[in-house]
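Dear colleagues,

For the upcoming journal club I promised to circulate an example of a predicted protein-ligand complex. I picked one with guanosine-5'-diphosphate because it came up in last month's discussion. The inputs are reproduced below in full, followed by the predicted structure.
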Amino acid sequence: MLGVAELDGLPDEEAPEVAFAGRSNVGKSSLLNALVNQTGLARASNTPGRTRELNYFDLEGRLRLVDLPGYGYARASRKDSAQWMALTKAFMQGRSVLRRVFVLVDSRHGLKDSDIEIMELLDEAAVIYQVVLTKSDKVKPTALAHLMKVTSDKIARRPAAHPFIRATSAEKGDGIDLLRADINALI
Ligand code: GDP
């Protein structure tokens, strides 16, 4: 694992990359661990808003997963939020090997303003993004189906939004294979 605090410390653009974004505590570390089938690789923590850097995970040189810092942390200062935006924006706009950004959204909460903000940024940068619902085991199947529909309607007219929304549970393993297939199709 490689932590990159400054953008000029990013690795060479020699492998395709997919990035993961989401509000703090959305379950990003847990999902990354489930995806690469390895616990302890992505740091899972109960301290939201702690990670302030980009973490890289190299999958045998074929692909790199990029863990973007969590956003929307309630106690983050205005300055921290601005810094986050600047870092993320620079990354999105300047990274030619970036194939897709997965925007993680908690199945219990749905899209929040901060998620929309990141989507606006991605629309502007013309980077394709795909919504991934997390912690699907926390809601009933009917509620999940409803959220998928509502979310799908909300992103329908966004220029860079991928139409397929995935529902996942890192805890139960639901939807992980499908998401992995989406990622593999990008290599
Ligand atoms: P991050 O801050 O986005 O990296 O989120 P974490 O992966 O650290 O998860 C935040 C909290 O949500 C932790 O308490 C996890 O155990 C819990 N969590 C993450 N994924 C799931 C899931 O699929 N199901 C359930 N029930 N809890 C989850």
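Two points we might discuss: Strands lie at 2-4, 17-22, 54-59, 63-67, 98-106, 129-134, 166-167. Residues 44-51 have pLDDT under 50 and may be disordered.

See you all on Thursday,
B. R.
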